[in-house]
Amino acid sequence: MESLERTRRVIAGQPVDRLPAQPVLMMFAAQNAGYRYLDYTVDGGKMAHAQLKMMEDYGVDCLLTCSDPAREVIDIAGTGSVDWFDDQGPAINEGRAALRDKARLKQFKLPDPLGGGRMHDRIKGIEIMRREGGPGVSIVGWVEGPLALGAELRGVCTIMTDFLDDPPFVRDLFAFTSEVAIHYAMAQIEAGADTIGMSDAAASMMGPRPYAEFLFPMQQRVFTVIKEKYPEVTARRHLRAGFSGGFAAGAGQTRAGTGDLRECLHHYGLAGRHAGKGL
């Protein structure tokens, strides 16, 4: 049984030969292939080779394209807010946040995922993974979620105060960032990704009310558009470090809100499999 079939059968509640192993391996994958992590993040070919080697060496069940938080940021706003390091991924410097001036949001345009930038580099990696891994491997594409990208553009501490100080700005920002996620996800699926992971770990810093009011609808919008066009694609929501909300569970202090979680399970046809589990 190959990794894609194994993963989809588990999601469907069907028998498998073993549970799929889909660890988030990035720096270790680069090290295992003999690459500096910097090179892994800027060269989709090296990322693809390192992930294929992880599958060959360790029998993992996915080729992962997550690498760092600066792909969309750079293609939207340039490199001014990004710090680079020799052997780790690029990091956002909040002191130079791209949206320190909120008025700049009106100048932002949707980046072209095939425009030759860092977003395109990931897509090139996906194309290599699919070509060399074959149709039976599971390839996990990756997008920054509405809050994640918003925080990377604005600064995580600043955006948390924006929820109180300027709600209309937050709504405009999330409308933009969710659209970026949708367009980027579509391009990765077209390139060969069978799964889209969406990182929104900063959601674990929110309480249930702002999460329900501002973020949950935008997250659902991203997944709804994806599933309407590509119903066979798996959608994963990652909401805090060390926890995958797979198919959109809740986050940190939101405690998922059981109503929201029920809605997510029904949305993905999983509710029946979770009956009697407190939901």
Brief write-up:
By secondary structure, this protein is an alpha/beta fold. It is built from 11 helices and 7 strands.
In N-to-C order, the SSE pattern is: HHHHEHEEHEHHHEHEEH
By CATH reckoning, the class would read Alpha Beta
Average residue-wise pLDDT? 89
Strand order of the largest sheet: 1-4-5-6-7
What is the domain total for the residues? Answer: 1
Q: How far is the first residue's CA from the last residue's CA?
A: 32 Å
Strand content range? 5-15%
Which range best describes the helical content: under 10%, 10-25%, 25-40%, 40-55%, 55-70% or over 70%? Answer: 40-55%
Structure description:
By secondary structure, the protein is α/β, with parallel strands linked by helices. It has a single domain, classed as TIM Barrel (Alpha-Beta Barrel), CATH 3.20.20.210. Helix content is 49%, strand content 9%. The protein contains 11 helices and 7 strands. The chain has helices at residues 3-11, 27-33, 37-42, 44-58, 71-77, 118-133, 146-154, 156-165, 167-191, 208-229, 258-267; strands at residues 63-64, 82-83, 91-92, 139-144, 195-199, 234-240, 243-244. The strands form 2 sheets. The chain has a 5-stranded mixed beta sheet with strand order 1-4-5-6-7. It has a two-stranded antiparallel sheet with strand order 2-3. α10 (208-229) links the parallel β5 and β6. α6 packs parallel to α9, α7 crosses α8 and α9 (167-191) runs parallel beside α10 (208-229). It is globular and about 50 Å long. Residues 241-258, 267-272 and 274-279 have low confidence and may be disordered.
